[in-house]
Amino acid sequence: MPLKVGVIGAGIGGLSAAIGLRRAGAEVEIYERSKFKNEVGGAITVTPNGSRVLESWGFDDVKAGAVEAKTLRMVDAHTLEPAFTDDLTDVRGDFGAKMAFYHRVDLHNSLKDLAQGQQEGPNNELAGPPAVIRLGQAVVDIDCETGVIILADGTKVTKDLLVIADGIKSRFISKITGEADKIKDLGWSAYRCLVPMDAILSDPETRPYFEGQAPGYWTPFYLPEAFYMVAYACRDNRLLNIAIRHETRAQDRDKDEDWNAAATHADVLEILNGYHPVMRAVVLKAPDVKVYKLVRREPLPRYWRGRAVIVGDAAHTILPTHAQGAVLAIEEAAALELLFTGRDGGSGSGSSSGVDVSARLELFEDVLKRRIHAVQFLSDSIPGTRDEARQRAEEICGDDLFDHEAMNFTEPVRKFFYSYDIRKEVTRRMREAGYLQA
Questions:
Q1: CA dist., res. 125 & res. 23, Å (int)
Q2: What sequence ranges are listed for the domain FAD-binding (predicted)?
């Protein structure tokens, strides 16, 4: 009998887990409280350690409107003169996969198609049946030990494996940890908006800063005020994604931790006051502006219990410092795929008979816990400093960690994050545990 899997949440983490487990031969049902009527979000970066997994799944980058990163440009926020540039064209050659930007909705839709659709090609068939997504089905309780899911209408469903992927405000963290969930408002937020590139390139004031430039990060910054704005293209270079970090303002303090909380252009312009006017001109071309508050919780002490595992934003609050939040969720999905594929590693062997779910989940945590904790601490740390979060990462990684003075996305930072290959690591650990032949 195929392994029966219930996934709670159909975001990037939940869909990725569904794809991985479907590839392992499982029957997957996803329970999503929303109805996908108003999918929202800005852009998202997938670095090579995540792209390797997507490519192994046959992910369609063309359909997803991917923009491959080719450059990093950090500029003075007052003058927009270059402060630091780095060529990213060799990233694929260095790490075996690309670094790409996606509109979050496009990435989500492409993952959804992969979870539900039929793949073509002799080497890309999915072993399990298409995942079933049950929209408008809120999960109100679970039993980790028995695999029972209780829906809002009282329906009870029993699964061999539960995957908790219901996002940063997950209601089931305590079911895994046995402790009350403690999430902390950091006092910082980010304004975000999407600007049509046509509008930027047709304006003589803004065009010189973007015309003819290789796609990549454009980052005006001013360290004495901890100011930085990050901009990069997505959706086939048709939209410019912008995020501006700032101290949470009084009018935003009572807003939920929600990607879609409304803000105004005036709010953003006030933050940009005193910096180069081109940034203001770019933001004014955005149809609307959103704000989201940055929050964190301490790394979880455990990531599984009984027949349940927690992944994605539900499992870890990863700040966008190194663009590893969604990537970690994709890596976790790849780990689940391999762990539940079977003893011989053959596709389609994800059977409930003879599979010790708890033992596989214990190995999942054994492989990923240190990685998750290190990535979370590094995302908390201010680049260029040796603050408490950085020191906690050093305790985990030791000499393998890049120098604390290395800035975001520079070569030593890229090497640390992008060289990690979750598939190789899980395969190695499965061999050591006797799940695979040496």
A1: 8
A2: 4-336
Residues 6+ away with beta carbon under 8 Å from 282: 195, 200, 206, 231, 240, 242
Region class of 367: left (phi > 0), else alpha (psi between -120 and 50), else beta: alpha
- pTM of the entire predicted model: 0.94
> Could you give the angle at which helices 388-397 and 357-380 cross, rounded to 10 degrees?
140
CA 272 centroid distance within chain:
28
In angstroms, the CA 325 to CA 47 distance is 10
User: CA geometry: angle at 231 spanning 83 and 65, to 5°?
Assistant: 135
- Which run of H or of E encompasses 72? strand 71-76
Question: Could you tell me the two tokens for 259?
Answer: 């990607």
Per the CATH hierarchy, to which homologous superfamily does domain 4-68+96-182+298-433 belong?
FAD/NAD(P)-binding domain (3.50.50.60)
Domains 4-68+96-182+298-433 and 185-296 share a fold: no
CATH 3.30.9.30 correct for 185-296:
yes
Instruction: Look over the chain and give the mean of its residue pLDDT values, rounded to a whole number.
Output: 92
All structural domains of the chain with their residue ranges: 4-68+96-182+298-433, 185-296
